[in-house]
Amino acid sequence: MAGHQHTERPSGDLHRTAADRLGRDGQRYTLGRRAVVGLLGDTDRPLTISEMLERDGALAQSSAYRNLSVLERAGVVHRVVASDEFTRFELAEDLTGHHHHLICSNCGAVADFTIAPELETTLAEAFTDVAAATGFRTEHHRLDLLGTCARCAATLPS
């Protein structure tokens, strides 16, 4: 499993892009929204709101929910639904680079992974074929692998 590597992007560029997207949505890039984008930009996996609050004690839970909703609507943040009751959030893929998710069906953990460009091309071609055969208009693809993470697998009976 390869870990997701965020695209080398200067922090100012990320924040400038977020501010532009929010502006187009009629929203301001407040300090709270900037803090959320900074947290998500500094991690290698999607985070729950609880994890964000643990990492930045200055974030208030109520404003974190509101800010994530605004950031999601503006196309800065993407919601990742796992198998547990906790929604996770990450920066929009065009800000971090194309990747996929490993989702543990036991504990709900989500990890990012990337695949070799040749395999990514093969998958994209297969998805294009499926879309053409069904009349579906593809915008992009996401691949979530569901299973058991290494930590949970170590505790489950064989």
Plain-language structure description:
It contains seven helices and six strands. It has 158 residues and is an alpha+beta fold. It has a single domain, classed as Dna Ligase, domain 1. A three-stranded antiparallel β-sheet has the order 1-3-2. The protein has a three-stranded mixed β-sheet with strand order 5-4-6, with no helix packed on it. A hairpin with a 5-residue loop joins strand 4 (100-104) and strand 5 (110-113). The longest helix has 18 residues, at 117-134. Residues 1-10 have low confidence and may be disordered.
Could you report the average pLDDT, rounded to the nearest whole number?
89
CATH fold-level label: Dna Ligase, domain 1
Strand order of the largest sheet: 1-3-2
- The percentage helix is 40-55%
Beginning-to-end CA distance, first to last residue: 22 Å
Q: Give the radius of gyration.
A: 17 Å
Number of domains: 1
Q: Element order, helices and strands?
A: HHEHHEEHEEHEH
State the major sheet: 3 strands, antiparallel
**What spatial form do the alpha-carbon principal axes imply?**
globular
Residue windows where pLDDT falls under 50 for at least 5 positions: 1-10
Overall structural class, as computed from helix and strand content, comes to alpha+beta
Beta-strand content bin: 15-25%
Strand segment count:
6
What is the name of the CATH architecture?
A: 2-Layer Sandwich
- For CATH, the homologous superfamily is named as Ferric-uptake regulator, C-terminal dimerisarion domain
- Determine and state the CATH class: Alpha Beta
Q: Count the helices. How many?
A: 7
